[in-house]
């Protein structure tokens, strides 16, 4: 019993030190200034879709009233559930409101093992910050 108490106290102290150091680091980087906030223009990006076509956020925004960007990973079960729900409502929103959805996959090396991604009606983009994006889906 005493050993468990010591381990619990030690774990809490490690958590507290980590938490304080993380807060100090975030304050030093001025994290709120680095994040996109309401009213700000989203930064443009380009990424390849699963067919090897380049998709540009600003070009997509020129032809649609609303563009939503969703980031997801194959290992994230809630993300895959969200994509399934977005699949259900996407077509109605696209026709009625000029809506486009860009689903950016954060682990393109694994996407080949998830055939449901090819069945989604909206563009699935491969994270341009990840290596080998073209090697996975080079048409």
Spell out the key features of this protein.
139 residues; alpha/beta; Glutaredoxin; two-stranded antiparallel ribbon; 5 strands; 49% helix; disordered C terminus
Structure overview:
With 139 residues, this protein is an alpha/beta fold. It folds into two domains: 2-33; 36-136, Glutaredoxin. The chain is built from six helices and five strands, in the order H-H-E-E-H-E-H-E-H-E-H. The strands form two sheets. It has a three-stranded parallel sheet with strand order 3-4-5, with helices on both faces. The protein is elongated, with a radius of gyration of 20 Å. Mean pLDDT is 77; it is low at 131-139.
Distance between the termini: 61 Å
CATH superfamily of the largest domain: Glutaredoxin
- Please give the oligomerization state of what you see: single chain
Q: What is the annotated CATH architecture of the largest domain?
A: 3-Layer(aba) Sandwich
Q: Strands across the major sheet, in which order?
A: 3-4-5
Could you say what the CATH topology of the largest domain is called? Glutaredoxin
Let me know the average pLDDT.
77
Instruction: Give me the count of strands.
Output: 5
Q: N-to-C SSE series?
A: HHEEHEHEHEH
Approximate strand percentage: 15-25%
**What about the largest sheet?**
3 strands, parallel
Q: What is the number of domains?
A: 2
H/I helix tally = 6
Low-pLDDT stretches: 131-139
